[in-house]
Amino acid sequence: MSSKQSPTSPGSEGDERKRKRKLSNRESARRSRMRKQQHLDELTLQVTQLKEENKKVRQMIDGASDLYINFATENNVVRAQVAELTDRLRSLNSVLQIASEVSGFAFDIQDVPENLLEPWQLPYPVQPIPASADVFQY
């Protein structure tokens, strides 16, 4: 008997199975690495897109904040002007009252409107401003 095994011997089938299994495992590992790489690429793309979207939203917020600050500043200026003009109106009404008393002529002196005395009170009811999801579209 020979010590070498023939190609059809049982040991040879086991070696062939091991070789096929090893080859199958390598192919499976390669596919798995490819899927992981593809998933990583998709996530990287998504991160880039979300950063861009975040940047646009921040720019919109900054723009809205700037508008708010500008309007608030303008509102404070207008309130100061209203207060100054209200004081002037009162002073002129006082002068007219004195002139009326001294001259004997009757002047039609109107009272200062209430909304000028309390500029923080709006003369009309506050209406809510409806918001739309379109505001955040770019």
From TrEMBL:
Chief localisation class: nucleus
Subcellular location as annotated: Nucleus
Protein keywords: DNA-binding, Nucleus, Transcription, Transcription regulation
SUPFAM superfamilies cross-referenced by the UniProt entry: Leucine zipper domain (SSF57959)
Ranges of residues in domain BZIP: 15-62
Stretch list, region Disordered: 1-42
Polar residues composition-biased segments: 1-11
GO cellular component: nucleus
One function term, GO molecular function aspect: DNA binding
CDD domains, per the entry: bZIP_plant_GBF1
Annotated protein name in UniProt: BZIP domain-containing protein
The organism of origin for this protein: Castilleja foliolosa
Taxonomic classification: Eukaryota, Viridiplantae, Streptophyta, Embryophyta, Tracheophyta
